[in-house]
Design a protein that fits this description.
By secondary structure, this protein is α/β, with parallel strands linked by helices. It has helices at about 1-15, 80-90, 100-115, 170-175, 180, 210-220, 255-260, 310-325, 350-355, 390-400, 415-420, 450-465, and strands spanning about 35, 45, 50, 55-60, 65, 120-140, 145, 145-150, 155-160, 160-165, 185-190, 225, 250, 265-285, 295-300, 335-340, 365-370, 380-385, 405-410, 425-435. It is built from 12 helices and 20 strands. The two termini are about 40 Å apart.
């Protein structure tokens, strides 16, 4: 325990810029002298630390805050907590891609949980494209080669030799060679063309590089598309687009190299899949008699096609449900809106539907707090802010400093908080750093989640929500 007292002293000293050793360190139950806490915020100008109990406490201008130390040794006692019970249920549905049966089951569970605690629940349905897949077969000369159909691939049963390209100029050369060379052949893309997933045709952030790749693929009209995994630090297929009318599959780097070196030998690809019109839905829950001014807490509950999505993003939804249960009965002047978004992993159709329905009050939203990718046991919890006034960010950084296991990171746009931040609403994003490789992978399973990390996020978000009775995120 004495190490904890030293850690508390070190944290306060480093934050204040005062590294002068004290003559002696106080024993549990005593107080530090007040040490300047220089965050450029006169409201929180000094601190002292209470060493009584498990967590030392800050004294900031008469306000006391717990220091929340992450303690992995407590993991075993946390596996039956409400947040873990929610997490087990959500992961138990399996992969939850948009409009799938598992996705609908998760939506039902979220809706029932919100309703059971007395929130006003709105379901926000919208049309989308669902995808079903039963089998993929790739072979050459009767030898099976591992392959996985890309999300939303068309079905196919084709046999053809390989043509390949690693750059846009090489693709353009294939196109200029006229159709006799490329017609009916299997197109293998690699290199610069697969360093990142190719943006969907309707993705509003697509760049000229992706636009040109899609134009050339559609002009070539190959029998099918094959690629190795994208060159990212998480699982990635080159195409995941229901508007791209093409059969496509991902192969390992080893298989891609094999095919590249034997292009003249025909390859047989069979994909049993289908696209079908469907409906998905967001689940939005609000505290009763909610005014136009509100605080939004959100997380998405859909996954990629191949993953149980424990940390991306069942853990965040489990925290969202737990926060709703904890906060709904608290008497506060600030109204709360809890959003379980659907469709984040492919196109942000759920965000679009929410925007359509929230026109009358969207500009009055005080702040959005989004959770995505939280809870990996071998990661560190992270926090950042976007579109925030300087004073508001200082306050959020101060609150986050009560949690030594949480680090401040640069703003990142890849989740639902961008829907708010890009439209002028202050947004806070909670995530993690150090285990990005779990995202979108088959390894993103329940055993990779730290219950203590989830409790850490819940405690942090609760402090932020409580603080927003005095501070506002508007710039």
């Amino acid at each position: 325990m004495r190490a904890i007292w030293w850690l508390a002293w070190l944290l306060v000293s480093l934050t204040s810029g005062d590294y002068t050793p004290r003559a002696s360190f106080p024993e549990p139950g005593f107080w530090f002298e007040a040490i300047p806490f220089n965050l450029g915020n006169p409201t929180f100008s000094s601190k002292a630390v209470s060493t009584t109990g498990l967590n030392p406490r800050y004294n900031a201008g008469g306000n006391f805050f717990n220091l929340h130390f992450f303690d992995p040794s407590k993991e075993a006692s946390l596996f039956s907590t409400p947040v873990m019970n929610h997490l087990r249920t959500l992961v138990g549905f399996g992969p939850r891609p948009i409009a799938s049966p598992a996705n609908q089951a998760a939506a039902d569970y979220i809706c029932e949980t919100f309703s059971a605690i007395g929130l006003d629940v709105e379901e926000q349905p919208y049309t989308c494209t669902a995808w079903e897949h039963t089998a993929t077969l790739l072979e050459q000369n009767g030898v099976p080669l591992p392959a996985v159909a890309n999300a939303f691939s068309l079905p196919c049963d084709v046999r053809a030799p390989i043509i390949s390209a690693s750059s846009i100029p090489e693709l353009e050369m294939l196109y200029l060679a006229e159709s006799e060379f490329s017609k009916g052949k299997m197109l293998l893309l690699y290199g610069d063309l697969t360093r990142t997933p190719i943006a969907a045709k309707s993705w509003f952030l697509k760049d000229e590089h992706d636009i040109r790749i899609v134009e050339l693929i559609e002009a070539l009209r190959p029998a099918a598309l094959l690629t190795p995994p994208t060159d990212t630090d998480y699982y990635g297929q080159a195409t995941e687009d229901w508007e791209l009318n093409l059969a496509a599959a991902t192969v390992s780097s080893k298989v891609a190299l094999h095919l590249l070196r034997q292009p003249e030998k025909p390859v047989h690809l069979c994909i049993n899949s289908r696209r079908l019109p469907a409906r998905a839905r967001n689940i939005v829950a609000r505290t009763p008699n909610l005014s136009r001014n509100r605080l939004v807490l959100c997380a998405h509950f859909d996954t990629k096609i191949n993953t149980p999505g424990a940390t991306d993003n069942a853990a965040a939804v489990a925290c969202l449900l737990t926060l709703a249960e904890n906060l709904v009965s608290t008497n506060r002047s600030l109204g709360l809106e809890f959003i379980a978004f659907n469709g984040e992993e492919y196109l942000p159709l759920g965000d679009d539907e929410y925007l359509r329905r929230s026109v009358s009050y969207f500009k009055d939203i005080l702040t959005c707090i989004n959770m995505d990718g939280i809870g990996p046991a071998l990661a560190t919890s992270s926090i950042t802010a976007m579109t925030c006034a300087a004073e508001f960010e200082v306050q959020i950084r101060l609150i986050a400093s009560h949690f030594p296991g949480v680090v401040w990171v640069a703003p990142w746009p890849e989740s639902n908080h961008s829907t708010f931040a890009m439209r002028g609403i202050p947004a806070i994003a909670l995530g993690s750093t150090g285990m990005r490789c779990l995202a979108h992978s088959t390894d993103d399973t329940l055993d990779k989640v730290s219950p203590a990390r989830l409790e850490e996020v819940i405690a942090l978000e609760t402090e932020i929500v409580n603080s927003l009775k005095e501070i506002r995120g508007t710039s």
